Amino acid sequence: xxxxxxxxxxxxxxxxxxxxxxxxxxxxxxxxxxxxxxxxxxxxxxxxxxxxxxxxxxxxxxxxxxxxxxxxxxxxxxxxxxxxxxxxxxxxxxxxxxxxxxxxxxxxxxxxxxxxxxxxxxxxxxxxxxxxxxxxxxxxxxxxxxxxxxxxxxxxxxxxxxxxxxxxxxxxxxxxxxxxxxxxxxxxxxxxxxxxxxxxxxxxxxxxxxxxxxxxxxxxxxxxxxxxxxxxxxxxxxxxxxxxxxxxxxxxxxxxxxxxxxxxxxxxxxxxxxxxxxxxxxxxxxxxxxxxxxxxxxxxxxxxxxxxxxxxxxxxxxxxxxxxxxxxxxxxxxxxxxxxxxxxxxxxxxxxxxxxxxxxxxxxxxxxxxxxxxxxxxxxxxxxxxxxxxxxxxxxxxxxxxxxxxxxxxxxxxxxxxxxxxxxxxxxxxxxxxxxxxxxxxxxxxxxxxxxxxxxxxxxxxxxxxxxxxxxxxxxxxxxxxxxxxxxxxxxxxxxxxxxxxxxxxxxxxxxxxxxxxxxxxxxxxxxxxxxxxxxxxxxxxxxxxxxxxxxxxxxxxxxxxxxxxxxxxxxxxxxxxxxxxxxxxx
Length: 587
Ligand SMILES: Nc1ncnc2c1ncn2[C@@H]1O[C@H](COP(=O)(O)OP(=O)(O)OP(=O)(O)O)[C@@H](O)[C@H]1O
Prior knowledge:
By secondary structure, the chain is an alpha/beta fold. It is built from 23 helices and ten strands. Adenosine-5'-triphosphate binds at residues 118, 353, 358, 376, 378-384. It holds the Pfam family ABC_tran.
């Protein structure tokens, strides 16, 4: 709660003060309406006139038939206004709080290290953004204000009851610890159920997202029934927790009600006995019962609030755990923008995902404008090596330098500004082709975009689309073919015009018109840029200035295509089996 106050609520303290002021006003006006009953009944029914008359102003005592209802209606109006003020201010603060947390969570997600994102479940983030923030709002705004209001009503009712008959009130208070113990019991159960339900909600989100992402694999393998059963099992587990929580919640309020009704019965008996001896008036008795009723109702509300608070604070704990993960890959305090560089150097670079070493002692130098092909068996570390250049991951040891400047001495933004990435399966956003091309260079001119489209050999197919550059590509570029997506990604890289290019070449062979165009566009893109390329095509490796052959995370051979073929080692072997056409035929 302290943290919620410090990080979120403090900024809205004016609105919160208004909400709490309104809550107190609601409590007071509720009490006042009930308090009016005693002198009202006593005056109207002519009971013990003198006592009632001394409790109210003279004009009320003089004309109770008019003034008692008028005062009660006025107090009710005050209460209505206070309730409206309470609702609007709490809603405003609460929903602003949700928006702020959701925005922070997304900011945290988008700035997180890849290493962290790979470990976290996307569903867990999704359910935090969508549900946890709402649960936390309910507890920290509505919950807190209702606590203040209903606690106020209970305390004020007890004080008024003590004024009417302190002995009876002392007796009533004895029930307090019993109610406390009952509520405590339900509170524990609700908390446990809330935690379980929230965990299953994130599992459910993950399961749904995974099934949709892999829908083709699901269908081709006829695994719809399996996926249905998998999701049903999660729903079932989630429901069990939700039902447990709902049962605890549903039992807490009636238990409190039963206890307060027992108290009411005892009060009726005791008050009747006191009335017989003339120690209690009808007005006093009616007001006492009404106060007791109000206190009982507020106690029930407090019992219901236990769930809201339990869920809210469990959600808050989860949210804070997610928000507290700070990225480790950040700018050094004295980082400078990356300037022009004449070479990229890897100097004894090693890397591990966790404890598993993936790259060992990688050393090489790429001069500006050269193309470096990375080849090697699957899992040898080619993608990992590429990932180190834009600092998607940081090397465990060794140095990467741009010219003479160490990679960690430059700002992340300037480093990534100078790198373009074209991957095997390029990612497109559900936006227009224009926006997708300009993603790396927002605000690029129409001319620059048109030039990038021409360079990427994408103009023909874009011209055939009904809205040309303004055609939306669908989620993940689903309305375009693989070759078209590739060319848009290449146009994006052309427009970014970065000096360093990372390419993960498509594995398929050059056998269609579209793929020939892609290949030619890539060759134009590589011209004049330092290119690191995971090569799957013989034509690419043959033209590379330097080929690094990786095996188990180490460079085992290096040189040009001809030099490596002459070595007759791993490269020659790979060239025979891995590349599209046999070496003999291609050479
Ligand atoms: N995010 C990750 N977490 C843990 N291990 C990983 C991760 N990514 C890759 N690895 C492991 O690191 C090793 C190298 O993987 P990498 O993707 O760099 O190989 P690659 O040579 O690019 O393979 P391929 O040609 O099959 O794409 C593999 O053993 C892989 O299991």
